[in-house]
Amino acid sequence: KNLKKHFPIKKGIFGKTVGHVKAVDDISFYVNEGETLGIVGESGCGKSTTGRVLMRLLEPTEGEIEFDGKNLIDLSVEEMRKTRRDIQMVFQDPYASLNPRHTIGKILEEPLIVHGILNSKERKKKVEEFLVIVGLHPFHAKRYPHQFSGGQRQRIGIARALMTNPKLIIADEPVSALDVSIQAQVLNLMQDLQEEFNLTYIFIAHDLGVVRHISDRVGVMYLGKLVEISDSESLYEKPLHPYTQALLSAVPVPDPDYAKEQIIIEGDIPNPANPPSGCTFHTRCPFKMDICTVDSPKLVEHTTGHSVACHLYDESQVGNDIKQLEGS
Ligand code: SF4
Ligand code: MG
């Protein structure tokens, strides 16, 4: 709720704060138990920072994080450490997140040791069991990360996240570094595991195509703000925000007969340290109106379960359209 993460920009030898990068700027959303919420946006939009803040790997500047009836912000370091058993993360680059000098067995056992789960013999058994669950073999426990392919390493990363029987998994671009042919396998595995272990996912990705089939709901971020959030069906069928429309038009369609017009977003992502006034998307938006440069649109529910932050959908704006129609 109202989550913010602002990083100070420091200058000079005394490290004087001269401004802030508003990496996450007042976003609110929820994820229901057992569902997958996709969070999508270009790099630098704040989606990874959001994931880290939710786990308090980064302290939020402001806001509340309610999980299982507790506000995580109120927890002590020790209580938060215990809670992390229930919230695990899967990272984009499985190679960078697996210690190259440790065997897979040791890597998978570590979260169990940290949280004081099971005795040594039971832990080893659980490691072997979970290697099989993610599609590997018990003998892989003796091997090292470099002996595996990218896809296998991501399976190991997923197994590690599962070791503590978490409720929520925050997956930060878990398939972005993988070949397209391998991506589908890992996504299918994650979906099977979700069902088997009743997991809740927050699935971060940079393109809407990846999260399409896995997400129950999808949120789109731009420059630290959530600009649209909706159940998947409604979002993919009727994207409301011009940015979502552009992102979606870039997703290839499997049916070649259905040619769609690609919307090209002009210009680069603005500097997050100095974001545009009003709607931060106005510098690239093909539908920009006068109000957009001065007033920041709020995220409001447009239809049930589908919210958007864009002046095109303001009540007053809708009213104007109707007035124009009536006048003509
Ligand atoms: Fe475009 Fe204005 Fe909507 Fe922003 S508020 S997305 S600039 S129409
Ligand atoms: Mg990222």
Automatic annotation (TrEMBL):
CDD domains tied to this protein: ABC_NikE_OppD_transporters
Pfam families documented for this protein: ABC_tran (PF00005), oligo_HPY (PF08352)
InterPro entries documented for this protein: AAA+_ATPase, ABC_transp_ATP-bind, ABC_transporter-like_ATP-bd, ABC_transporter-like_CS, Oligopep_ABC_C, P-loop_NTPase
One MF annotation (Gene Ontology) recorded for this entry: ATP binding
Domain ABC transporter span(s) in chain numbering: 1-248
The entry's keywords: ATP-binding, Nucleotide-binding, Transport
SUPFAM superfamilies in alphabetical order: P-loop containing nucleoside triphosphate hydrolases (SSF52540)
Family matches, as Gene3D superfamilies: P-loop containing nucleotide triphosphate hydrolases (3.40.50.300)
Protein family: Belongs to the ABC transporter superfamily.
Name under which the protein is recorded: Dipeptide ABC transporter ATP-binding protein
Source organism of this protein record: Sporosarcina oncorhynchi
